[in-house]
Amino acid sequence: MEKVPETKEPELQKPFVKPALEAVLIDLAPHSDHIKINGKQYWHGTTHEVTPALAATLREIMARGWAHERTLHESENPYRRAKGLRV
After folding, report:
1. Which residue has the higher pLDDT, 19 or 42?
2. What gap in Å lies between CA 65 and CA 32, rounded to an integer?
3. How crowded is residue 30: how many other Cβ atoms within 10 Å of its Cβ?
4. Which of 33, 36, 48, 81 has the fewest Cβ atoms within 10 angstroms?
């Protein structure tokens, strides 16, 4: 006896749900004035309503900019002791 393949009913498409938007304040380090992603500029000091994925990207870029700024000014720490270097 030949086995008949089971037929599955087609799954209904789930309705497209827009992701909730998040407000992100662009706070950049002094060495930059804007971030450009996909041709859109996000200027320092402005707030934008963006998708969660884009919000995470913007936050990471801002954090990396501030980390870079800290590495540039590490030697300007007023509490740092002078090293006893001799020539």
Report:
1. 42
2. 8
3. 11
4. 81
